[in-house]
Each structure stands twice: as C-alpha cells, then as structure tokens.
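Appendix B. Raw example, untouched.
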Amino acid sequence: MKKLPIEIGSIVISKAGRDQGRRFLVVGEVDDDFVMIANGELRKMDRQKKKRRRHLKPTGIVVTELQARLAKGQPVQDHELRSWLSEEEEKLVQV
C-alpha cells in the first residue's frame, strides 16, 4: 500500500501526543522527518508545532490556496486556517 505524501498545504490528523485525533494543516517542512503544523486554534501560525511525519496521518486533501500563499511568502491568518479545515470537513460529511 502506497503512503500518501505529506506536503505543505496537506490536511493531516495527529496519531500521537496530546493532540491525538486533531486535524492540522502542514504549513512548513523542516527536513525528511519533521514538518510544522498549525490549525488556528490549539496551534496558531505564530506558535506552530514541529511534528514527526510518522506521527501524522494524511487525509489526501491539499489546500492549494495555502500552498500558493506560503510559496509566495504571503502571510496566513489563523481564521483562514480554521476556515479551510471546516470547509474540508463539510465536504467529507456530504460524501
């Protein structure tokens, strides 16, 4: 079974730690083992969490708008992260 990639803009679910079961957006890559995550609530953009890739479960959903904005170096607000996460959750519920 092929693993889904964890890239910037991906929506992931934490598999380990105090934040287990919570959904986050990947907002940065540190190296092959670590990424930076945030969700706008528990982890805001000014206090991102460094997390091992193996402790994250990818959902296969990528927010392309977030990818583009981070690539251009544009700021991303916490309310936008919350909005993108809730929009994707609504899409999953409708299916």
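End of appendix B.
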